[in-house]
Design goal:
The chain is of the alpha/beta class. The protein is built from nine helices and 22 strands. Strands 1, 2, 5, 6, 7, 8, 21 and 22 form an eight-stranded mixed sheet that branches.
């Protein structure tokens, strides 16, 4: 991977036909195709290409998707465990291997602080250790991720200062935390896996859960995500996906790839001593208040679990696939009551880990391309603003968008659109060309 440390300065603003903002796997995938097409472009990255993986995941992190899902332009997982789950460090090593296969015109440790529409394209302001500079481009591709800013509740500052508070992206291992019990807030993939990490380390864990669904890790002899891929679920366009926008807005199903992969069953954790609560609604000083939703949330997550298994059953029957018998999850624990309050100090809780998600931040984009919720208005990543595209967004085109499995297809489309807009020959996307 080549690195462009500086842009030649002159009396006029430097111009690059295409600028990609963000060097995660999505932005770099578009760069791969543009480089293949001979398109002059620049990738601008505020950190380094693997920063999000190397520096923002906890020590025992593993992928929740099977290794065979890991496909990027010109590069796929070829290890000896396609149905396994790479650890954090293995993902970084795999990405480094991909980056070694092609050259990227990239500026690292450089932040785009402003992108403004002009009469002929875009004007970008770049900030780095070397100072501020401006460049222009005809096409701008935003690859900064859908939700870069960690969310904390508005009442967090009102909680007792004796209890430490961190966001899930700041958690790395149990040893970094003060002795005592830990409250994890949020039951998405990060929240449940961090709660498990602490639980397995012997820490006393309290977990406030929301409405996240869950899925079986393995069912009828195969990984559930392998079944779903065969069923075409990850390739279904967002417009055709059952449940529409409401389904797309739901938190991802919780499951884990740890130790070869297994279900995350919060009821089992509770039977082993983990304390569960419903949706956390407010807090002041040392007292937190919860909605009485624990039983409802557990039942709803299990219903989704069983519904997905039933969908797989129907696929197996319709296609006469040989597989072990069907089964159904039955609860192994029931809450005696739905707790509605918790005194942090009385419970011996010394740390709160907020795992309630992230929010978009496009304040630096001075373009009219967003809805009332601050989300890009786009079709397969392409906006109504001439020359402005996005890549790497959840549900940008399919459920696979934003995942390793769907990045290549999305990147091809964006690169093809850019090449066509620049008036060049369309990308030849056939394999091996």
């Amino acid at each position: 991977m080549s690195t462009t440390d500086t842009i030649p300065r002159s009396t006029s603003t430097a111009h690059v036909p295409v600028v990609i903002v963000g060097a995660g796997q999505a932005g770099l995938s578009v760069s791969w195709y543009l480089g293949r097409a001979g398109i002059d472009h620049l990738v601008v990255e505020s950190h380094t290409p693997t920063h999000a993986w190397a520096d923002k995941r906890w020590d025992n992190f593993t992928l929740v998707t099977p290794n065979w899902h890991c496909r990027l332009p010109g590069y796929s997982y070829t290890g000896d465990d396609p149905d396994g789950f790479m650890t954090r460090d293995e993902v970084v090593e795999w990405l480094d291997g991909w980056l070694a296969t092609f050259d990227v015109p990239i500026r690292t440790r450089t932040t785009v602080t402003r992108l403004k529409r002009t009469a002929t394209g875009f004007l970008l302001t770049l900030e780095s250790a070397g100072g501020s500079e401006e460049i222009t481009c005809d096409q701008a591709i935003i690859a900064t991720g859908g939700y870069p800013l960690p969310v904390l509740p508005p009442y967090a500052p009102a909680l007792d200062s004796a209890v430490a508070q961190i966001h899930s992206e700041e958690y790395f291992n149990p040893e970094q935390l003060d002795d005592g019990a830990v409250l994890v807030v949020g039951s998405g993939q990060s929240g449940t896996q961090i709660a498990e990490d602490l639980h397995l380390a012997g820490r006393e864990v309290h977990l406030a859960i929301g409405n996240a669904p869950r899925v079986a890790r393995f069912y009828r002899g195969r990984d559930c995500m392998t079944w779903l891929a065969d069923m075409g679920v990850y390739d279904t366009p967002a417009q055709q996906y059952p449940g529409g926008r409401a389904a797309q807005e739901k938190t991802n199903h919780y499951v884990t790839g740890r130790d070869g992969g297994r279900d995350v069953d919060l009821r089992t954790f509770a039977a082993q001593g983990m304390k569960l609560y419903g949706h956390l609604t407010s807090g002041k000083d040392a007292v937190l208040t919860f909605a009485p939703t624990l039983t409802e949330s557990l039942d709803a997550a299990d219903a989704v679990y069983n519904s997905i298994c039933a969908d797989i059953d129907r696929y197996i029957d319709a296609n006469d696939v040989a597989a072990p018998p069907a089964s159904r999850y039955e609860p192994v624990w029931q809450p005696p009551a739905d707790p509605t309050t918790l005194d942090l100090l009385d419970a011996g809780i010394t740390t709160i880990i907020w795992a309630i998600g992230y929010r978009p931040d496009y304040r630096w984009l001075e373009v009219s391309a967003f809805d009332g919720g601050g989300r890009p208005i786009q079709t397969r990543g392409v906006t109504e603003v001439p020359g402005l595209s996005f890549i790497g967004l959840p549900w940008m085109h399919t459920w696979g968008s934003g995942r390793f499995l769907g990045i290549d297809h999305d990147a091809r489309h964006i690169a093809d659109t850019v090449v066509a807009a620049l008036g060049d020959t369309r990308l030849r996307l056939a394999s091996g060309e």
